[in-house]
Write a structure and sequence with these properties.
This protein is an alpha/beta fold. It has 14 helices and 14 strands. Bound molecules: iron/sulfur cluster.
């Protein structure tokens, strides 16, 4: 990180004096979101990645492994196997988890839960701090099926949850999360009205606790706006929003009362800022998004600078194989750090990294010499 801040200072000085900008140091992002596939076996009415699903474009397995190895040599510490599609549908899903762990990386999976057998096959490879989070968004089988429209005619929430004790038995170190995107009437994806689930928050928390998950995480519904950015558009009127927030607050309190004592009921950062009424503060970004250096998104459709702009042309660093030749990755990162104006492109996004970006911006702009040592002990949580 110090190398990056020093480079930014030198690059700005060079630009101001008309000198050539020095090359970005030989670094890769600290963390990536890796979309293994765009294929999905659900058709969720609240899906944020609807437009890029089932695109038929694929990773070449060896090319992908080479890219990951090159990145790991340059500082990559964690990989989140996530959507765009359903990661467990990638042929050899467990093999990729094993490969990533062999590179010494922290690994997490965000899955729809439909392939509990494949999650179980991958379970032995996880180590302390790794996690699997299932996007389930419901407390009853009926709402689960209506919201997710699984291609299997028989898949239920009961069946998905029945895999959790087996995964825990195979590897108690892996943390299991139940993710719940709260939807309420008024939320829409284009013209499609979403199914409401706000009334099932407590039921879902109880179910997750009983099924040996470690936590449930509640998030508000996000929408993609026309330019592709993922934004929070909570309600059509302020009065509606206040009524929804009051219901969410009450449900969170009730949920905490019905779960195991060692089970956590969490509100995501997005949800906390929505409830605190401060979410618009997180839409004011600095011009340079420094997070592009720290975390990128690798998908079969290409490599992007941020999950909020997955699949968006302006946010594309290069092809899916970008980091197979690290100099190309560094070059593309330097280009987007200069050209992508986050103060404009992310002006509607409730950015979770807003304070990190402003902190790094202040550090770059400050004249004070940078310390050699880290200011605080390492937390060893590499997921971004
Ligand atoms: S400012 Fe935030 S939303 Fe925009 S690209 Fe950076 S991390 Fe993503």
């Amino acid at each position: 990180m110090l190398d990056y801040v020093q480079w930014q200072r030198a690059a700005r000085k060079a630009r101001a004096s008309g000198q050539p900008v020095p090359d970005l140091p030989d670094l890769a992002p600290l963390s990536i979101n890796l979309d293994l596939t765009t294929a999905c076996n659900y058709a969720c009415d609240h899906c944020i990645d609807w437009d890029i699903l089932n695109s038929k474009v694929r990773h070449e397995d060896q090319e992908l492994r080479d890219s990951l190895a090159r990145m790991a040599e340059r500082g990559l510490r964690s990989v989140i196997l996530i959507g765009g599609g359903e990661p467990t549908l990638y042929p050899g899903f467990a093999g990729i988890v094993e490969f990533l762990k062999g590179l010494g990386l922290s690994v997490a999976v965000v899955s729809n839960g439909s392939r509990g057998d494949r999650l179980l096959a991958a379970a032995p490879f996880f180590t302390e701090g790794d996690w699997i989070r299932l996007s389930l968004d419901s407390g009853s089988n009926e709402v689960f099926r209506r919201m997710h429209n699984p291609s299997s005619k028989t898949l239920t929430l009961d069946e998905i949850c029945s895999w959790m004790p087996k995964i825990k038995a195979a590897n108690p170190k892996v943390q299991l999360g139940f993710s719940f995107v709260i939807t309420w009437l008024g939320g829409s994806r284009g013209e499609v009205k979403v199914i409401e689930n706000i009334h099932e928050m407590v039921m879902a928390a109880k179910r997750a606790s009983d099924a040996q998950f470690d936590y449930i995480s509640f998030k508000p519904f996000l929408e993609r706006q026309q330019d592709g950015a993922e934004v929070m558009d909570p309600a059509k009127t302020e009065a509606e929003l206040q009524a929804v927030i009051a219901r969410i607050q009450q449900n969170l309190e009730q949920a905490r009362a019905v779960v195991r004592s060692d089970f956590r009921v969490l509100a995501s950062t997005n949800l906390r800022v929505l409830m605190a009424g401060t979410w618009r503060d997180y839409t004011k970004q600095p011009k340079v998004c420094h997070m592009q250096m720290l975390r990128q998104v690798v998908t079969p459709l290409g490599t992007f600078n941020c999950p909020a702009h997955r699949g968006v042309e302006k946010a594309q660093l290069g092809g899916k194989e970008l980091w197979q030749v690290p100099a190309a990755g560094q070059h593309a990162t330097a280009r987007l750090l200069a050209d992508f104006d986050a103060s404009h492109e992310c002006r509607q996004v409730t950015c979770l990294y807003n304070s990190t970006n402003w902190w790094l911006e202040e550090l770059v702009e400050a004249n004070a010499p940078l310390p050699k040592d880290a200011p605080a002990p390492e937390q060893k949580d590499w997921f971004l």
